[in-house]
Design goal:
Layout: E1 5-8, E2 19-25, H1 34-40, E3 44-49, H2 52-59, E4 63-68, H3 74-85, E5 90-94, H4 97-110, E6 114-124, E7 127-134, E8 139-145, E9 149-153, E10 167-171, E11 201-205, H5 214-226, E12 230-233, H6 235-239, E13 260-264, H7 270-273, E14 281-286, H8 292-295, E15 299-302, H9 305-316
Parallel strand pairs: 1-10, 2-3, 2-5, 3-4, 4-10, 5-9, 6-9, 11-12, 11-13, 13-14, 14-15
Antiparallel strand pairs: 6-7, 7-8
Helix pairs in contact: 3-4, 5-9
Length: 321
């Protein structure tokens, strides 16, 4: 999509807002949960990093500020943001790796509390109120503060706003030099071990895979890695011990919001689909054409999930045990 206009400036005056999303972008690619953070902040966002104008156009927020901060070190960037953000009462960052890294530094620079791992956050007449997920999402705690606050928002908690042709103000931040962390390299995450919540592609497995042997799940992980995806599972699979509970997707597990969700033998119980967020594309592989997972899929393959996994392995050149 395109924006109505992009305005270029040399500085940003202090923003007078009650809520604002702050999103770190890499090469124009938005992190997981960016759209949800913008929605929680009422449609206003400050984008930092590289390719920020491109990312703003993709995001389609009603109002966006884009600052190219390539090479800016964390402490210097936080210091540069203080005069811009000191009058914003609630700052919402997605709980992506960059968001989790910047949020505590920003909170320290602004001398305000950090409310990490929130599922909801808002501003009312008494201050900032947030609901925080604890004990791996099994407990929610409401926290109130009369001070301005920084919040990290977990992905999969709400729907993004509909895209709009909003205005983008391209600005220049004056990042002060000084002693700071030095970035040596950025390593891509290992699909087999990366956090489910951060994954762009997820291969989910349910009891319909019809296999309990470790070799099948080793093959599953290898096929997923070849697809650039990480693996997840339903509660039935994790309770049976076939995969770890840290791989469980659902209302009692991890909330995800990938671009692609490939469901192998997943029936689609509400406890599982409640943790899927809003995937851009869903592919369901199941022998039951009427199961809820196939009903919500963009593409439904009515076939044996285990057989399709073996076929995928052969076609992708993944060696079987």
């Amino acid at each position: 999509m395109s924006v109505q206009s992009v305005h270029r400036g040399t500085e940003t005056a202090p923003l007078q807002l009650s809520r604002l999303a702050v999103v770190v972008v890499r090469n124009g690619v938005l992190p997981v949960g960016a759209g949800e953070a913008v929605a929680e902040a009422g449609g206003r966002v400050l984008l930092l990093g590289s390719g920020t104008v491109q990312a703003a156009q993709e995001l389609g927020a009603p109002r966006a500020w884009a600052a190219d901060t390539v090479g800016a070190a964390p402490a210097g960037l936080s210091a540069a943001l203080v005069p811009v953000l000191e009058n914003v009462q609630l700052l919402v960052l997605p709980a992506s790796p960059d968001g989790r890294d910047l949020a505590p530094r920003l909170a320290a620079a602004l001398d305000r509390p950090l409310l990490a791992g929130a599922t909801r956050a808002d501003v009312d007449e008494e201050g900032v109120v947030a609901v925080l997920a604890r004990l791996e999402g099994r407990l929610e705690v409401e926290v109130r503060t009369t001070e301005p606050a920084v919040v990290t928002l977990l992905p999969g908690c709400r729907n993004p706003l509909p895209a709009s042709n909003g205005e983008v103000l391209e600005v220049l931040l004056d990042v002060p030099p000084g002693v700071d962390a030095e970035r040596l390299a950025v390593l891509e995450p290992d699909p087999e071990t990366m956090d489910l919540a951060d994954a762009r592609r997820v291969v989910g497995v349910g009891a319909g895979l019809g296999a309990k042997d470790p070799e099948t799940f080793d093959l599953l992980r290898a096929v997923a890695a070849r697809l650039g995806a990480t693996t997840g599972a339903t509660r039935v699979v994790t309770d049976a011990g076939w995969m770890g509970h840290e791989r469980q997707i659902g209302t009692t597990g991890i909330a995800v919001d990938p671009d692609l969700y490939l469901a192998l033998g997943v029936a689609g119980a509400s406890q599982h689909t409640g943790g899927l967020g809003s995937p851009r594309h869903v592919v369901s592989v199941n022998t039951d054409p009427s199961c809820p997972m196939t009903a919500m899929a963009d593409l439904g393959l009515v076939t044996d999930a285990h057989g399709l996994l073996l076929e995928l392995a052969d076609r992708l050149g993944v060696a079987r045990a």
